[in-house]
Request: fold
Amino acid sequence: MASGTTFALQAVPAHTPGTPASAAQAALLASEAAVQKRTADLEARFGDPWDTGNPLGHGPVLAADARGRVQAEGEALLEDFALNAEFVPAALGGRLVRADALARILRPVFRRDQSLGVGYGVFSLLAGASVWAAGSPEQQRWAADLLLGGGRLAVSYRELAHGNAFLRDEFRLTATGGRLVLDGTKRVIINADRAQGLVVVCRSSNEPGSQAHSTLLLDRAQLPKGRVKDLDPYPMVGMRGCRMTGLAFDDCPVPETSLLGQVGGGVELALQTFAFTRSILPAMVLAGGDTALRTALRYAEQHGVGGRPLPRNPQARRTLAGAFTDLLICDSLSLAAMRATGHHLGITGVYAAATKYLLPILLNDAVHELSVLLGSSIYVREGEFGIFQKHVRDLPVTSLGHAGAAAALSTISPQLPALARRSWSAAGTGDSALFALRQDQPALTFKRAETFADGDVLCAELLSAAAFLEQDPGLEFAAVLQPLVRLLCGELRRLRAACTTLAPLSRHCLANPQTYALADRYTLLLAAAACLGVWRHQQQGPDIFLARSGWLVSALLRICTRLGIGPLPAGAPAAEAQVFAELLRRHHKPASFDLYDSPLATS
Reply:
């Protein structure tokens, strides 16, 4: 069951970290111009990753990974950039203003090294979300000052032995002799040995149900020595530079003021913060897919594929264009999900869970398909193309994050009956705020919304786009787009019919393979609707490629294939050629392979 949490913050370009931003400053920081400026600044600081003389390039990243360490020069760069300020609300002196803005600002980091992105600070963001949502003013001030001073927060949601189920953690909080005592062990907590602040989800009651867990914010420096022990680092295949250590508490007293929110409110708080973090982390991680695609294309141009030059290998071109299309699908869905957090939509938690579920599947499949192009070179761990295998190893780990596929589907499933009855039969008016790339957005305010999904703007966008296409048969590739969208609308009708037979908010939704399968199909429809929304709301805009229909045709064909619906209209080679031409343009420019076509650093 997901409560929709809405995060809406604000910040300023000229704002000095550590000083609370005024409303005007916050609006400036939230502006598109400010977001572009900070993103470009960080990209320029990293420099050209392909430059063999760049101390922050692929070569040094691979050398650090071989040693099992994050690159020290990268961490120093992020400290100089004051990256931690991006994780702190502007009202507390930071630069956190918009979810979608933060994801874009972090992409230059994840494009180089996902271990650096996660290990340096992203888990400080995940931990901080609980503090900004439920902490007292004193707790928020302490956590903000810690991050702005260059410190770290660590968060523990789950126990390794229990897979991905954070509810089965092994930390236990008890009241003994008029004091609170923490016991237990967690084997894997990112940055546990480097973080002064700890956000800990722990069992606080033996009673069954969702009120048996609480959340603590602990200052490690204030805990008694000998009561907290660091566990040895856990060996990882991917993310080798990320500090995966653990903690053991032994009869450790903690102050009552360490509680975040209410006793027994840990599960609710976690689910609410997931509505923010589940969409933002995958949106950062897709930058790793960007590098994997760029590396595969670079290899194919230089060495050919299967003994044939790239221009004479249609299958290789199809694979590259398909991976590019998958990145655009991922970015479209994550954009809508992150924008929903700033617009106080009750369905935010559902969209975030859909993003958390679907993006890892699409990214991992895309990278797997690309690996075929490199042949045996995918095993190379050094040199010009060694970065590919690093992203192959890192992507599955970063994609897991703090909640996996089953947890995400369990968030979506209980909402399906109500959504089917209320929201999947009428077109919407169309809200450009969710899809217009460079339109200013409201600054984020961490506001907890205690409502269930009350409307599905993405599915309404799907129906609106269908009507839009029927009214203008002269659109580019309309002969292919119209039947594709009809197929998707038909699938939505079938999904609605199936979901209306489910018991409203039934507990069986959480463990029923049928509802999981329905939720899976629903996430693909959301992705298709997001692509249609991005395309429809770029018409007559500055993003010429996105306003054209080639990428949309490719995206919808791939989504319909995953859904297994058809018959699909005859292939559109001209659409694929349009996508591949754009891929080459961005590769040689160079520019990012996401929706934003952002310039990348060159030597």
About this structure: Residues 156-268 form a domain with the Butyryl-CoA Dehydrogenase, subunit A; domain 2 fold (CATH 2.40.110.10). The mean pLDDT is 88. The beta strands are 5-6, 153-156, 171-176, 179-190, 197-203, 213-219, 228-231, 244-254, 447-448. The first strand starts at residue 5 and ends at 6.
